Amino acid sequence: MAADPTEEPATEVPIPPDLAPATAPRGSVPASLAPQDNVLGGILLILGAVTLFSCSDAVSKHLRGTLPSGEIVWIRYLVFVAMTLALLGRNRFRGLHARRPGLQLLRGLCVLTSSVLFVIGLGYLPLAEATAINYVAPTFITLLSIPVLGEVVGPRRWIALLVGFVGVLIVVQPGGGTFQWAAVLPLLTAAAWAGAVVITRRIGVADHPGTTMFWTACTGFVALTLFLPFDFRMPTGWELGLGLLHGVLGSAGQMLVVQAYRQAPASVLAPFSYGQIVTSAFVGYVVFGAFPGQAMLLGSGVIIASGLYTAHRERLRARERRGEAG
């Protein structure tokens, strides 16, 4: 649920407007609105955010043992909608009209699909493993950017993508005795999330970030509400409280990410966003007694290396485009 490290906000400050399970889709505001860089403050905020995300995921994993996945995500979206309306209310609910409603609707469905699949996966996989696999999202973002955005991928980036998939294979160990079919769920989560990011790029500046946040929240909430009666179990007061805590922790994490990217550049914060793999491993061990194995640790390192190199190439391409425009 940390910020996506593959987008370079050279002229924009990224703002994550929703509650994705791992890396968060985001809009942007002009860089002129950002204060002077405060690198240490930005790093501390990112580390705080990924810690909250890991705790939120741990609550979700705990609830997965007693409540249906869709119901857990519905409670989370309930908090999301309340937070969105509160933020928009401060601006007198401006920006509710979308210039590209079809793309906004599709983006909201991608975010919803990503959220539901991740929660389902947490019911079968250790928290750290699910988080690590989900961090292959930058690879899917690059792949989708080719047909959707017309981007050209060079040989070095192709190699980085392959390395990322190798890291996933190390983690899931297909053909081995520890392989679980549920390992596919975080992969599908990453793919759905990548679709949301690419659509966000496609929308560009056509819609305000607040508009994107509103449409994402309402799309997911309405869709989940329609299906809720088909897979619903009346939660106890304790379960409802945990569900609300799940949403609050995720929302608070997103707010910290917003502030972090106002304090420091994405190129500085990207490595620290991968700290969620570490915090998830720690929280998973403390709460569930699941200690990461050697394969998970090695595969996570490979995935992180691939993601950081992909982010590096993205930054170089962004600088080249700015040079040509200048």
TrEMBL record:
Entry's transmembrane regions: 72-93, 105-126, 132-150, 157-175, 181-200, 212-230, 242-261, 268-288, 294-312
Record Gene3D superfamilies: 1.10.3730.20
Biased composition (Acidic residues): 1-10
Transmembrane helix found in the keyword field: yes
Keywords carried by this UniProt record: Membrane, Transmembrane, Transmembrane helix
Region (Disordered) residue spans: 1-28
Top-level taxon in the UniProt lineage: Bacteria
Name of protein: EamA family transporter
